[in-house]
Each structure stands twice: as structure tokens, then as C-alpha cells.
Design a protein that fits this description.
A hairpin with a 4-residue loop joins strand 2 (about 110-120) and strand 3 (about 125-130). With about 200 residues, the protein is α+β, with helices and mostly antiparallel strands. It folds into two domains: about 5-55; about 65-185, no CATH class. The radius of gyration is 38 Å and the shape is elongated. The longest helix has about 35 residues, at about 5-35. The chain contains four helices and four strands; from the N terminus they run ααβββαβα. The protein has a four-stranded mixed sheet with strand order 1-2-3-4.
Length: about 200
């Protein structure tokens, strides 16, 4: 037999063998892929589902969700049907959470709200106070780029973050204005009106 033919035959045989193995390996790979997904997606799903709850900003806690931290007199009704104080419904800060507090208790400023209800007429009023520490005033001016800071009447300066002190001061101010308004109403009653009420 011609040696050249033998070499060509062996080369062709090896080439067919190599091609067959390649096709067989490709066939196994393509069949194995759709049989089941790789385990990585199941592992990757866990961070996707837990990440929002970790990075999510929790809503601020409000006073209606907490016990009232200060003592206030019991609501009483006198003989003429007037009440000694309004009902305190809720309190909260504009930005600061009541439980966590500010990042720096000594340099703090925020708007404080107290919701009350006048029991006599079921009228609700939302009081707003600007509350700050001395360092907080400086921080407010720097944050807002203000050359001066004008404080309105309802502003409260405290030495540091203290929810009980802030709430006690605001409640005291509201009760004082409530009593003054009652006194004003009594002294400006119509002639002949003794202030008594026929309601029971």
C-alpha cells in the first residue's frame, strides 16, 4: 500500500475522531444547560429581597404611638360646662424621630407640632413651635446660609435634646393661652349673661 495514502487515511481518521468528540461535547453542553438553572440565581435572590428592608428609611415615630411622657392635669368640666384644658392628641417633629432623636443632641433644630382638641366644640388645632439649642441656631444659620435668624413668637430654645422638657414647655404654654382665652371670653360676655349654661 502506498505510504502517502496511509498517512492521508490516518490523518482523516484522526480528524473525524477529533470532530466527533467536539460535536459530542457541544451536544452535551447544550443539553445540560436547559435541564436546570445554575444555583447562583437562587443565592442572588436573597440580597435582592432583603436589601430594600435594610436600606429603607423607617417612618418617624409620633407621640400618638408612645405613652405621654409628662404629667398633665385630668380633664375636668366645671359647673358652667367649660373644660380646664384641651385634649392633647399627638405630637411630633418635622424631621426628627421622637425615639432616635437628632444626630447631635447639643446642636439640634426642628419644627415641633402638637395637635390638640378643644372638647367644648370638638375643634382641633395644630400648634407649631420652632425648637432649637443654642448650637442648633448656629447650625440653622449655616445650613440655610442666613446672615441673621428671625425667631417668631412660638420659638423654644432648650439646652439640649429633651423630648419631655420640650413637650412640657409647649403644653404649659398652650394651657396658659387656653386659660387666658377662657378668661377673655368670660369678661367679654354679653350684658345680662352671667356665664351660666342651661346644658347638662
Amino acid at each position: 500500500m502506498d505510504p502517502i495514502k496511509i498517512v492521508i487515511f490516518v490523518a482523516a481518521f484522526l480528524l473525524l475522531l477529533l470532530l466527533g468528540r467536539k460535536l459530542s461535547h457541544f451536544s452535551e453542553s447544550s443539553i445540560a444547560t436547559p435541564l436546570g438553572p445554575p444555583p447562583e440565581p437562587a443565592i442572588d435572590e436573597t440580597p435582592v429581597t432583603t436589601a430594600p428592608s435594610i436600606n429603607r428609611k423607617e417612618p418617624a415615630v409620633v407621640g400618638a404611638e408612645l405613652p405621654f411622657p409628662i404629667h398633665v392635669p385630668e380633664i375636668e368640666r366645671d359647673s358652667d360646662g367649660r373644660y380646664n384644658r384641651p385634649e392633647f392628641l399627638n405630637y411630633y417633629f418635622e424631621e426628627t424621630d421622637l425615639v432616635r432623636g437628632p444626630e447631635n443632641p447639643a446642636a439640634f433644630y426642628d419644627d415641633f407640632y402638637l395637635l390638640v382638641r378643644d372638647i367644648e366644640n370638638s375643634h382641633t388645632v395644630l400648634y407649631k413651635y420652632f425648637v432649637a439649642t443654642p448650637q442648633g441656631l448656629q447650625k440653622a444659620m449655616e445650613d440655610e446660609h442666613l446672615p441673621a435668624l428671625y425667631l417668631e413668637d412660638q420659638a423654644l430654645i432648650v439646652p439640649r435634646w429633651d423630648v419631655s422638657l420640650i413637650l412640657q414647655t409647649v403644653v404649659k404654654d398652650i394651657m396658659k393661652s387656653y386659660a387666658e382665652r377662657r378668661h377673655h371670653d368670660d369678661t367679654h360676655a354679653l350684658p345680662g349673661d352671667d356665664g351660666s349654661s342651661n346644658t347638662s
